[in-house]
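User: what does the whole thing look like in 3D?
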Amino acid sequence: MTESSTVPFLQARDLTKSFSGVKALRGVTLEVERGEVHAVIGENGAGKSTLMKILAGVQPQDEGQILIDGLEVPLKGVDQALEQGIALIHQELNLADNLNVGSNIFLGREPTRYGLIDSNQIYSEASKYLKMVGLEIDPRTLVENLTIGVQQMVEIAKALSVNARVLIMDEPTSSLSQLETEELFRVISKLKSQGVTIIYISHRLFEIKEIADRVTILRDGENAGQLEKDAITHDAMVEAMVGRDISQFYSRETRELGETVLTVQALRTQTWPQHEVNLKVRAGEMVGIAGLVGAGRTELLRAIFGVDPSSSGMITLSGQSLTKYNCRTTINLGMAMVPEDRKSEGLILETGSRNNIGLPGLDRHRINGVFANAAKEKSDAERMTGEMRIKTAHDSQPVQFLSGGNQQKVVIGKWLSMNPTILLLDEPTRGVDIGAKQEIYRLMEELTAKGVGILFVSSEMEEVLSMSDRVLVMHEGRIAGELTRDTASEESIMHLATGGQPSDLMTEENN
Amino acid sequence: MKKVLGIFLLLVFICVATALLSDRFLTAFNIENLIRRSALFGILSIGAAFVIITSGIDLSIGSVVCLIGCLLPWMLVECEMSVPMALTMVTGISLLIGLTHGLLITKVKLQPFVVTLCGLLFYRGLTRGLVKDQTQGFRGEFSSLRSLSQGQLAIPGTDFGIPNPCLILVFVAILAIILLNFTVYGRYMLALGRNETATRFSGINTDRMTILAYVICGLLSGLGGMLFVLDVGSAQPVDFGNFYELYAIAGAVLGGCSLRGGQGTIIGVVIGAAVMQVLKNTITLVDAIPTNIEYAVIGAVILGGVVTDELVKSFAAKRRSKLGK
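Assistant: Here's the predicted 3D structure for the full assembly of 836 residues, as structure tokens:
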């Protein structure tokens, strides 16, 4: 027992992890004491989720050790992590919603009697764990009839039922209401008093200030500092998260802007119907949308483009105002969108670059009303392959065999062949290598020089800062603030993205 | 093209083997009959192929054959309708059936399997109720209409002729090839069968294309039903067209359509349908094969066909990835 006061309860030492050559963790260390609420924060892609997945045994580390009470423990698989008492509460809930609460809690560990499932024992045991998280529901209730907040509590109860000593919560409040969040915090304090350790990941810095005992900050897969309870302030956290010199890897010249090519007025997405979004993009302008994962950026782009219906609002495109519309209309009026997930939304993986690039243009280039213009398709594909330097064996080589960068170029090429006046891009450089990244930036630059308006969403700070003429920062479904090239910085973006007020930003700058 | 070659070689192989094992195979009567049956099933398979290419399925084909096959003589004989009127009616009904399937699948978002399974039961029951289980026939009349199925185009200088259904199949197949390969609609169907989301994101009305596929299938099932009854002369509502959907689907799959959607050629499908019919003929003619194992043989051949196809594909993929490295 004397040892436990000197050696941290849970310790991760020099963890590294690479994904196909990209380093997600470069020697991260984490020390957590028994019974504390330890927050882990960082920007998108800082390595938080990777670290948590390693701790929960979802994926193994490349190098480094994990120790409990000073002894190294193997965590090769979720079952081994659970044996050590480490349970991960996923961002997306992992309950089988067609089963009832009790069955979910004991899924895979059902108590049996005479070889049959002992339902009575399940329900009586389940009630015990539900009480521990303050839930007074019948364990026979179907999970699909519960609210997200209650489902989360059920997941915590499930973790407790396997005697979890460490609960890892990944963005637990991202889909909870204010009341549900408060309830969660009550449960966390209760568990803490019972000696359960909580590792808490959140983008919401205000929550962390409220419940965390200590904060570990990650940046680019490395430790970027630790804050003790008294030192946890919003500013200190933001500073530690972003404090890095921004390499000027691409700098955009300011240029003359043309007419407004896209106006979005009072648009409400179905995910965030409580907030109206207004924005404008001018010809030749590059507007970046920054924000944290889940802030509603993708939903906004999809609603503007018309692949998801908006609940209300209007967009104006090429002089036409549209209220109820779909993407056929916007495409015909010169809009194009490079979606977030190119494999499922952007490409038909089993077919070649020619058919992929030609697809949106088939309608426009019909011959005699019905026939596909194969010659035009081929020439468009050739032109795009050449201009964008797409590396493919031949134009019918299935695009699933191309690299991420080349796949992304096919998606962009598919839209450029339509000569858009406004281009929407969602995470244009996600999962592409540095060379392809530069080419995509060059391309975006050329397009704006030709007078195309660009509205893009990106989770990469450098990308937003170096490419944008203007930055819109989103927070929980609304545009929390607009920054010009002069006012946009990592600090100002993070401030707005984490729920800070634009007015605070002004005073901070004055200081 | 390689795929079509494979199934074509299979067809040739079965034909040659049967010709060697039975001297009744290469008779003018048998060949002509075989071509007629193959052509009729080919029409159904082309319909099934359009649906399968959009990654759907149609289980109601056999029941639509039954409905139209019974309705046509019933309208002409019992209701004393004029020929053009009856033809318009059956065409309209087939189209309506396809349209209903398409709308239920795209707008109500039901699963194709469920919708068409209900169709399979519903149209059969409807037919039996409507004609009170009575066999429907032409009573020796309407010979000019029946020549649509029974007649043939004589080949000058021989006593052999091309059965009319074969000519109709060629006509349908050419239209289908044009639609699938040369029009934008065919391209849309192939694209959405592979990746519906990406196709929708490209600004294509995927719902409309899916509906089109079911309408084509409904129309061709109706055409098939009409030609079948004109050929045979009468239809029993209890079992007319029984299992035809399975022959149609099997022909399409054997001809290179993947149930995962997005792939298939019309030529392959036509040959696939022919393989099924030749196989049935083989079992009847070759004495060494007992007739009662017919379904087992057909099942085994289809399984063998698709297994070979998968093996060839994974072999090609392995070779490709090796070359890639």
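In plain terms: The radius of gyration of chain B is 20 Å. The first strand of chain B starts at residue 136 and ends at 137.
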